[in-house]
Amino acid sequence: MLAGIDIGGTKTAFALGERQGDEIAASWRRATEPTQDASADLLRMADDVRTLLEEAGLAPGELEAVGVSAAGPLDPGQGVLLEPPNLPWHRAPVVGVLSQALGCPVFLDNDANAAALAEWLYGAGRGTRHMVYLTMSTGVGAGLVLDGRIHRGVACSAGEVGHVPVVWDGEPCSCGMRGCLEAYVGGAAWTRRLVEHTPPSSRVAALTPAGATPRPEQVVLAAREGDAFALSELARFNDYLARGIVQVAFTLAPELVVLGTIPTAAGEALCLDPVREQVHARLWPVIGDGLRIEASGLGESLPDYAGLSVAREGLARS
Length: 318
Ligand SMILES: [Zn+2]
Prior knowledge:
Blueprint: E1 2-7, E2 11-17, E3 24-31, H1 38-55, E4 65-70, E5 74-75, E6 80-81, H2 94-102, E7 106-110, H3 111-122, E8 131-135, E9 141-146, E10 149-150, H4 182-185, H5 187-197, H6 203-207, H7 216-224, H8 228-252, E11 256-259, H9 262-282, H10 285-288, E12 292-295, H11 302-317
Parallel strand pairs: 1-4, 4-7, 8-11, 11-12
Antiparallel strand pairs: 1-2, 2-3, 5-6, 8-9, 9-10
Helix pairs in contact: 1-2, 3-11, 7-8, 7-9, 8-9
Bound molecules: zinc ion.
The site of zinc ion (ZN) has 6 residues, from loops.
């Protein structure tokens, strides 16, 4: 039996699953509630895994491996999460603490790689050899499956597609550079733009809960109702997203690009079809003809599979 832990800034997902097959044997989610003490937080997560095993009627000795997915730069050799952007941890010894507490191998990977693995092993990417997973949640990141394995690059930093410039000297980005893809299609950047530009008369404003700021979710809802501002915002999003995908496609020639978060929520007519059209118009046929662009196959259940995928890949590698 494998266990997966997906550590998010607000929620942590735990899941048990077999090494083969795609059934989740047990799962649960709770608020992450991180403290300054990463080791104590990790020990609490080990307790969660033990509880889940117990609930599934399994002995602790039946656990073969644990996979952990988390945002941020990590040291894969040391199994340490360095400076996670959404947690108050500094050099969190994830692998050391969990492997000692649970008595089995523990594998750690970043959330983009884990999501790519999850889509590849359980979701939209099954059966492909060359697949890119692109997420546009707070930031923009990619996980690359090339020739049937995750490509990590120097310092595990491959896939930073969010910081490919799509406009030279364009909008400022959270990374300190300008014109990055993330500054146009990242959830945080788009939310900042919506706060500034949403007309009070638009459906986006009407659909935003009182006291909250407008977010991409409301743009998607308002666009479904035909709101002009929402449609123009989505058209802008699709345009920049297509620029990013074209760069990825010319560089890697994948069979499939899986789009998580906003495009999955917006769906075919509002996002995927216009993006496909723009991307294919810019690509050479030899690359474009072999490329599919699809929404996430796992959607909301992705966190349940992210950690399990890291465990499966780690075992296959070791
Ligand atoms: Zn950037």
